[in-house]
Amino acid sequence: MGVTIAIDCMGGDHGPSVTVPAALSFLRSHPDANAVLVGREEVLRPLIASEAARFGDRLRLQPASEVVTMEDPPAIAMRSKKDSSMRVAIDLVKDGRADAAVSAGNTGALMAISRFVLKTLPGIDRPAIATVLPSQKGHTYVLDLGANVDCSAEHLLQFGVMGAMLVAAIEHKERPSVGLLNIGEEVIKGNDVVKEAGELLRNSGLNFYGNVEGNDIFEGTVDVVVCDGFVGNVALKTSEGLAQMIGVFLKEEFKRSLLTRAMAVVVLPVLRRFKQRVDHRLYNGAPLLGLRGVVLKSHGSADALAFENALARAAEAASNRLLERISERMASMNEEKA
Amino acid sequence: MGVTIAIDCMGGDHGPSVTVPAALSFLRSHPDANAVLVGREEVLRPLIASEAARFGDRLRLQPASEVVTMEDPPAIAMRSKKDSSMRVAIDLVKDGRADAAVSAGNTGALMAISRFVLKTLPGIDRPAIATVLPSQKGHTYVLDLGANVDCSAEHLLQFGVMGAMLVAAIEHKERPSVGLLNIGEEVIKGNDVVKEAGELLRNSGLNFYGNVEGNDIFEGTVDVVVCDGFVGNVALKTSEGLAQMIGVFLKEEFKRSLLTRAMAVVVLPVLRRFKQRVDHRLYNGAPLLGLRGVVLKSHGSADALAFENALARAAEAASNRLLERISERMASMNEEKA
User: What part of A 66-125 touches B (C-beta under 8 Å)?
Assistant: First the structure.
């Protein structure tokens, strides 16, 4: 009996036209997994009609009459849309009827509802959002990405624990290295909160590497990079902007003349393989960490391939004791303190 | 009589082997400009011997017996190396014998010495470091880049003024647009300092666009992006790391086989033109803003082309009333307040 993923099928820019095909493809590639599609029955039912027999019990439908929009303030989404597909998907996790929930909807609402319904794990003050990025050596996990803007040193320490346990669960590395995002040695080093967090991490029993800088994210210096949500969000969005600009420039240069267009055709296989290595769709699916349940946020504009990757990541996190790892680590840290 | 640039020839990873050829090339391409090479006479004299006659009075040498190293703490560099090439170059600006100073040395020391020797402009609490980055629409100026880690809303407002005046001086745009770096609308929006800074900028008389996100830097949404030094430094270093990784991946794909190597030769002109557009050497030379004198910081690892670009940018800033523009703007803002 494999993991069961509750899927908010109505969320994201494209809704069921992306989430349902992604779910079906996920079931095909994960023969042990189950999916519960959450959303408006009259919309979802016809989309799965032809596949229902094939997957039998592995594919279920859970009706939800409302939809959280990108514009809904988190408080409104939480209080007045109790039958939203987002809320119902998280309720399924709460009730133990699903092992993880995935949504491409409104991040603020997803965080607020997850926190309200699932509560935080013992020892965790604030849940965080983590992402995985490609690096020269493999992958780097970065957190927080925007859930927490004014962080204390204790919060950063907790992010370190959550990030390390995430990598342990998903990448099967027992002692992932953790770096604290800071600025160069040349100028005044970091602010007081970051300095204090460095002390806490050094004494945490984690495999703490020390300070890292922005470039270390893509150099792959450490497995986990810890920062506050403002800084993490800026780093991620800046990277997205730069990658996009580089793509546009490369395309423009190959479209400059008939000759360069012909060249592009020749090198297409190389360019395609290059593109695959930095394809952000491979890195879709940002875990909300620190909750008593596994919830992943997909990019709102995800296509079916990207959304399926988020589902696969959710299955991986749910089947490898992510929550237990975080709880155990927090407990042993607090024992040492006491 | 053109501008005179004082050049710290001993600073940076490569010292005179980079700075002196860059200075000579700068004099060739800027027939109105003058250069004062600052550093150890016995080192510099032989390097310019063959060119001295050609440039005559435009090329001078100012002896300085000491060198600030990358490891020197700013306070030590300032107090106990009073005859360093860095210090003497800035003294030349202070004394009016040069219009700008350029150094590839230790950023912290350069900032500390500049601030001590030159002092800040009226109304400016803290000098900032700005950089220019390529964007889909041209260039984006970002500040602060690491001089200031705990900023108040007032500091961010001053960065806005300094950045706008820098673009006015260097890019000849009279009302450059200014954006405040913040995080997405989905999550809790920004922190209190950023919110307050938004209010101040809105009432500043600047051409304030509003909040921008990380991706807007490379999309070219605004001319100037304002942020605190911690965030700016992380954004810049993260971009450097990503650009480097993309370069490595692209190279690896073209080196994969004999066939792909042959393809690389075919598309070389296209790849070269692409590379030129994102070449970070074109963007070298980060102005230290808010001082009573023009000082630019070159990347420590700059090669001669990159260092020459920093010299050219310094000449541009010094010849277009940068300091006067900042002072005037600050004065008119303070008058309105009074």
Answer: 70, 106-108, 111
> Residue A330: inside a domain, yes or no?
no
Report the alpha-carbon distance of residue A21 to residue A25 in Å, rounded: 6
What pTM was estimated for this model as a whole?
A: 0.91
**Number of folded domains in chain A?**
2
Q: Which positions in chain A touch B229 (Cβ < 8 Å)?
A: 183, 187
Residue of A134, A184, A236 lying closest to B233 (CB–CB): A184
What digits encode the pLDDT tens for the residues A249-290? 888 888 888 888 888 888 888 888 888 887 888 889 999 999
Assigned domain for B53 exists: yes
Using CA atoms, how far apart are residues B26 and B2, in angstroms rounded to an integer?
13
CA A8, A13, A16, A18 torsion: positive or negative? Answer: negative
CB-based contact A215 B240, cutoff 8 Å: yes
Full domain range(s) for residue A237: 125-283
Selected residues 161-220 of chain A with any CB under 8 Å from a CB in chain B: 181, 183-184, 186-188, 190-192, 194, 213-219
The pLDDT of residue A186 is 46
Minimal C-alpha gap between B49 and chain A (Å): 34
Instruction: Calculate the average pLDDT of chain B.
Output: 92
CATH code, domain with A109? 3.40.718.10
pLDDT digits (tens, 9 = 90+) for B243-285: 989 888 888 888 888 888 888 888 888 888 888 887 888 889 9
- Strand, coil or helix: A287: strand
Q: Do A185 and B71 touch, CB atoms closer than 8 A?
A: no
> A-chain residues within 8 Å CB-CB of B234?
181, 183, 213-214, 227, 231, 234-235
Chain-chain contact of B241 with A214 (C-beta, under 8 angstroms)? yes
Interhelix angle B229-254/A258-278, rounded to 10 degrees, is 110
Q: pLDDT per residue over B110-130, tens digit each?
A: 999 999 999 999 989 999 999
Q: How far apart are CA B214 and CA B223, in angstroms?
A: 14
Do A137 and A209 lie in one domain? The reply is yes
